[in-house]
Design goal:
The protein is about 30% helix and about 25% strand. It has helices spanning about 5-30, 50-60, 70-75, 175-190; strands at about 45, 80, 90, 100-110, 115-120, 125-135, 145-150, 155, 160-165. It has a 6-stranded antiparallel barrel with strand order 3-4-5-6-7-9. Helix 2 (about 50-60) crosses helix 4.
C-alpha cells in the first residue's frame, strides 16, 4: 500500500476524530449523571438508621425504635393526623418494619400526597423528596404507600401509620434540603 503524505495525513485526521469521540463520550455521559451523591437506588450513601437521621433533621428530640416515637411524643410534641413540612411521619411496627420507621415531611403536595426525606428506607441510603401517598379508606393517613427507589415506582405495600409528630418550629422545604448534609453528619456521629 502506498503511504503518501496526503494519505497518511487523512488517516491521522480520521484516527484523531475517532479518538476525540471516544474521549468525549464518557465526559458527556458524566454530565447526565446525578452526581457523586445520588444513584439509581435513590439517594446518598449513609450507613445510618432512620431515627437518628429524623431526629437530627427535624429537631424532634425522641430516641429509641422509630415506632416508639409516637408514644414518647405524647405531652412533649403535638401529634396530628395530617402532614406539615418538618413534621415526622411515624410508621407502626410490622413484619417488614420490626422497629417501625420515621421520615421527615419535606413537602405537602396535596391532601393525600407528600414528599419525605428519610434514611434507611433503602439500606444505607438517605433519600430526599420521596413520594408517600395516603391509601387509607378514611383518608386519614393511617395507611400509606412509600416510593421504592430500586423499582422507580410506588411500593405496593400499605404500611400502617400512627400519624405525624410536629416539630417545635415550622420548617420550609428549602431549610430541610439545606440541613440534610449536617443531619447526616450528626446522625453518623451518634
Amino acid at each position: 500500500m502506498n503511504w503518501s503524505p496526503n494519505r497518511l495525513g487523512m488517516l491521522q485526521m480520521r484516527m484523531g476524530r475517532t479518538l476525540f469521540v471516544f474521549l468525549l463520550l464518557p465526559t458527556l455521559a458524566g454530565c447526565a449523571s446525578h452526581g457523586p451523591s445520588a444513584d439509581s437506588s435513590g439517594g446518598r450513601a449513609a450507613a445510618l438508621d432512620c431515627a437518628p437521621f429524623a431526629r437530627a433533621l427535624s429537631g424532634i428530640r425522641l430516641s429509641g425504635a422509630a415506632a416508639d416515637w409516637w408514644a414518647q411524643a405524647e405531652g412533649r410534641y403535638d401529634r396530628a393526623a395530617t402532614p406539615a413540612v418538618g413534621s415526622v411521619l411515624v410508621l407502626r411496627r410490622s413484619g417488614r418494619l420490626p422497629n417501625g420507621h420515621v421520615a421527615v415531611v419535606s413537602e405537602v403536595l396535596g391532601l393525600r400526597t407528600i414528599l419525605v426525606t428519610q434514611a434507611n428506607w433503602v439500606h444505607h441510603r438517605v433519600a430526599e423528596d420521596q413520594p408517600v401517598i395516603d391509601v387509607s379508606p378514611a383518608n386519614d393517613w393511617s395507611v400509606v404507600r412509600v416510593w421504592w427507589p430500586p423499582a422507580g415506582d410506588m411500593g405496593v405495600t400499605g404500611y400502617a401509620a400512627y400519624g405525624f409528630i410536629r416539630a417545635d418550629r415550622a420548617a420550609t422545604h428549602e431549610e430541610i434540603a439545606a440541613a440534610i448534609p449536617r443531619a447526616i453528619r450528626i446522625a453518623e456521629a451518634e
